[in-house]
Amino acid sequence: MTKAEINTPRFGWALTGSGHFFKESLEIMRRLPDLDVFVSKAAAEVIRMYRQDFVLPEGTRIYKDTTASAAPVGNFYYGVYHTLVMAPATSNTVAKCVCGISDNLATNVFAQAGKCRVPTIVFACDNAPELDTEAPKGMVKVYPRRIDLENTEQLKSFEATTVVESMAELEAAVAARLAWLNEGRQASVAP
Asked: Is the dihedral of CA 183, 24, 105, 107 positive or negative?
């Protein structure tokens, strides 16, 4: 890790195994500066299933879930990230986060972001009793279980964690973090 990398605040974005608004989430990622992407094993499968071009801005670093200890999470300790976004987040990922389980790259970066007080935005997929979602072969209707909805509600109580329930809310939350970042950069160059 170079001093320049530490001094350049970055977005961290964790992808889980959800296809719910996956393509739209990629579109937001493509507009972000200074981005690191954490791809869980399940997310790698979704990228293939949805036949997505994983083309991201120049300078984006991609970390894949290939180590048992999720070694890339160490960057959270050094102030590399100003924001973590987990979008879209499966009910499995949300449940693990709520229970404090960090057994894959996505849940591990969530845990480390919390321990390092890095603000986190989570787009929890299972957030209403009935949802329309895009599956690889087209739109389908899903009915999240009560436990899924309860976990989404419980995650809202976590420190420095913003849970969003729509693409509009995700866009707004990311825009707010960009505005905060830009304000900080302007203040650091002010006379």
From this structure: positive
> What whole-number distance in Å separates Cα of residue 120 and Cα of residue 96?
15
Show me where the domains of the chain are located: 3-179
What is Dmax (Cα atoms) for the chain? 56
pLDDT mean across residues, the chain: 88
CA pair distance 17, 77, nearest whole angstrom: 26
Q: What is the reported pTM?
A: 0.89
Helix (H) or strand (E) holding 123: strand 120-124
167 neighbors 21 (Cβ within 8 angstroms): yes
Q: Give me the CATH code for the 3-179 domain, please.
A: 3.40.50.1950
- Quickly list H helices, 50-166: 91-99, 105-115, 146-155
Q: Model confidence over 6-41: pLDDT tens digits?
A: 567 899 999 998 877 888 999 999 999 899 999 988
Helix (H, G, I), strand (E, B) or coil at 188: helix
How far apart, in whole angstroms, are the C-alpha atoms of residue 29 and residue 174? 10
Structural tokens at position 72: 């890339």
Q: CA 41 to CA 83: how far, in whole Å?
A: 22
- As a whole number, mean pLDDT of residues 68-94 equals 89
